[in-house]
């Protein structure tokens, strides 16, 4: 298996960190922008897109700050995706920091996917 490449992205968002956290950490919040439908049973999250299902385990979270998921088909690896809320101490600007992994020839595509997802999130939050 080819090693995946870690990449990070930053998206400024005009929303309170508390509200933002609801959208990145709860099944109802995630189903508003990340997937068509999201269900969870404990740490197991099921994401549904166009009838296709992907399952991820919530590996860690810090309330109001970040969530980290690992896709179940990547369970034996160190790959994960993380959504972190960052607030600039001086300006109080809020950003969502994305950390993810993709195969070398799929990094651009993965970044475009995140761009689209975060655009949807901004529309839901009314900060587009």
TrEMBL record:
SUPFAM superfamilies: Bet v1-like (SSF55961)
Pfam family, one: START_2
Chain ranges of the START-like domain: 1-126
Protein name, as recorded: START-like domain-containing protein
The species this protein was found in: Corallibacter vietnamensis
Coiled-coil regions listed in the entry: none
Superkingdom of the organism of origin: Bacteria
InterPro entries, alphabetized: START-like_dom_sf (IPR023393), START_2 (IPR045736)
């Amino acid at each position: 298996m080819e090693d995946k490449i870690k990449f990070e992205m930053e998206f400024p968002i005009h929303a309170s960190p508390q509200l933002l956290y609801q959208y990145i950490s709860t099944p109802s919040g995630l189903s508003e922008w990340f997937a068509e439908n999201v269900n969870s049973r404990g740490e197991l999250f099921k994401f549904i897109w166009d009838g296709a299902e992907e399952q991820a385990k919530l590996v860690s979270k810090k309330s109001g700050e970040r969530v980290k998921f690992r896709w179940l088909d990547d369970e034996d690896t160190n790959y994960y995706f993380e959504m972190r809320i960052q607030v600039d101490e001086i300006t109080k600007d809020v950003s969502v920091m994305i950390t993810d992994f993709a195969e070398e020839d799929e990094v651009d595509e993965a970044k475009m996917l995140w761009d689209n997802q975060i655009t949807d999130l901004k529309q839901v939050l009314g900060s587009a």
